[in-house]
Amino acid sequence: FLSVYFFSPRPISPMEVSVPELTPRRVCGAVGAVAAARLLLALWRQYMRRPNCPSPPGELPLLGHTLAFLPRIDDVLDYILEQDRRLKGATWQIRLAGQPLFVVTSKPTNVEYVLKSKFFSFEKGPYFRDRMTNLLGHGIFNSDGQPWLQQRKIAADMFSVG
Question: How far apart are CA 121 and CA 52, in angstroms?
């Protein structure tokens, strides 16, 4: 909060102090200003909460890589491959406005860790499932937890029948 103090050479009586009238418009303006400040603070905290991995150049606060990514929207996979080559195959992150953080890896040890060793620590979550249900249905590629384990057992049985 910003406080302004005026020092007067003479004492000021309470009758000389004027308090602005509280109108609905002023109350709404104050509430809106506080809400906007809290939203910006929350967005900034989310932006600062990031994994310890590199990202492509051109990241902007709050927008992330959105401005660099939009012109390449028609060849997303080429863009990701170019960035992966630029970052020499390291695990890296890309942040797009209004989207969750994307972490990209092509290292075989990291892929094995995510898909095999610690699979249950990397859930797809409702954000992914909701958007991919029309394409992937409710099968092994769009499941987490116990439903995924059941789908995996069915798939393993199909491949082991000889």
Answer: 18
The pLDDT tens digits of the residues spanning 141-159 come to 888 888 888 888 888 877 7
Assign 71 to helix, strand or coil: helix
Residues 102, 93 contacting (CB under 8 angstroms): yes
Question: How far is 144 from 100, CA to CA, in rounded Å?
Answer: 18
Q: Is 33 helix (H, G, I), strand (E, B) or coil?
A: helix
Q: Which of 53, 52, 102 is nearest to 80 (CA)?
A: 102
Give pLDDT tens digits for 81-132.
Answer: 898 899 888 888 888 888 878 888 888 888 888 877 887 787 888 888 888 8
- Evaluate if pTM is beyond 0.85: no
Looking at the DSSP assignment, which residues form a beta bridge with residue 103?
Answer: 93
Question: How many CB atoms are located within 10 Å of the residue 142 CB?
Answer: 20
What are the distances in angstroms from CA 93 to CA 4, 65, 96, 103? Answer: 44, 10, 10, 4
